[in-house]
Design brief:
By secondary structure, the protein is mainly alpha-helical. It has 3 domains: 26 residues, no CATH class; 167 residues, ABC transporter involved in vitamin B12 uptake, BtuC (Orthogonal Bundle), CATH 1.10.3470.10; 74 residues, no CATH class. It is 76% helix and 0% strand. The radius of gyration is 20 Å and the shape is globular. GO terms for molecular function: transmembrane transporter activity. It is found in: Cell membrane. This is ABC transporter permease. It is a multi-pass membrane protein. Belongs to the binding-protein-dependent transport system permease family. FecCD subfamily.
Length: 346
């Protein structure tokens, strides 16, 4: 297996790495705002943002101002928040379960969250993003409990949790399809199916106001437990021997994972492979210590998702591809590579 690069052992190297990552993220967000059916120069983008944030009076058409602020910037920031949150979920689950293939999509948590959100959306238990998030959170928790129980009943082990996740995904995907086919009209069914593939279409600022704080809270919780996550990578017994309150920490971290997954699924649908691929890329760059791994994972996840959104809008002329399709095109080969390497002794 290839040895990690482990960038950033010295403080100045870490600072340079973080500054570079933020610069790349800022550039990608600017690029995402500029690219589309109507191409907008970066200068115009900067003026539109300045007009709204600082009250400047740069002369811009109302169309350009609206496209930049009301559509593309909110979409790009939502993509960054979702990418960071989903990548963090993968890093947390891989440490807690000691499984390199663990992530919300593979373990069925995303499928459970989708079922909960669709049940709210189609069956009409309330309305609005917050209500969808509540339904998605309940679905995510139920899915994880079911998958964990199934894996434990099958004898436990790293391979059992993945197989249980596959079974759980199929179950909740079937439930989602049942709800859509029996309770949704044709227009609702089309919208839900496109959303389930992962869609940033229709994202607005209220969605960002939900996704960004959830991603930040999840990151803060994970960072607070970074040393505990380091201990969990050596096993539950080792973590307990080091004085970690194993049950309490697992509940907190799994709750944060379910919350982040639910919030993102309720807004953008089920997007796979981000939580699988990004933590491995970050681990290759900065090493396994979670004090460095978690910030790197969040930043790379944000950059990756914004880049995927750009690709989804330009890969087919005059048509927007679901972003989940783009992440799967990159993630599926990476999943196969990780699966191949995981079977070999390190």
């Amino acid at each position: 297996m290839a040895q990690p690069v482990v960038i950033g052992q010295r403080w100045w190297a870490r600072l340079a790495l973080v500054a570079s990552a933020f610069a790349v993220l800022g550039f990608m967000i600017s690029l995402a705002v500029s690219i589309g059916e109507i191409s907008i120069p970066l200068e115009t983008t900067a003026k539109a943002v300045s007009n709204r944030l600082f009250g400047t009076a740069f002369e811009l058409s109302r169309i350009h101002q609206g496209i930049v602020w009301d559509y593309r910037l909110s979409r790009a920031l939502l993509a960054a928040s979702a990418g960071a949150a989903l990548a963090l979920c993968g890093a947390i689950l891989q440490a807690l379960l000691r499984n390199p293939l663990a992530e919300p999509y593979v373990l069925g948590i995303s499928a459970g969250a989708s079922t909960g959100a669709v049940a709210v959306m189609i069956l009409g238990f309330g309305y609005g993003v917050l209500t969808l998030s509540t339904g998605a959170f309940i679905g995510a928790v139920v899915a994880f409990v079911l998958v964990s129980a199934l894996a434990a009943g099958a004898g436990g082990g790293a391979d059992r949790i993945i197989l249980a996740g596959v079974a759980g995904s199929q179950l909740f995907n079937a439930l989602t399809s049942y709800i859509v086919t029996t309770s949704a009209n044709a227009e609702q069914a089309r919208g839900v199916m496109f959303w389930l593939l992962g869609s940033l279409s229709g994202v607005r600022w209220p969605d960002v106001y939900l996704a960004a704080p959830v991603a930040f809270i999840g990151f803060a919780v994970a960072m607070f437990h970074a040393r505990a996550l380091d201990a969990f990578t050596f096993g539950i017994d080792a973590a307990a021997a080091l004085g970690i309150a194993v049950n309490r920490v697992r509940i907190i971290l799994l709750g944060a994972t379910a919350l982040m997954t639910a919030a993102m699924v309720s807004i953008v649908g089920s997007i796979g492979f981000v939580g699988l691929v990004i933590p491995h890329a970050a681990r290759f760059l900065v090493g396994p210590a979670h004090g460095r791994l978690l910030p790197a994972t969040a930043l790379i996840g944000a950059i990756f998702m914004v880049a995927a959104d750009i690709v989804s809008r330009i890969i087919i002329p005059q048509q927007i591809l679901p972003i989940g399709v783009v992440t799967a095109l990159f993630g599926a080969p990476a999943f196969a590579l990780i699966l191949y390497k995981a079977r070999r002794p390190v």
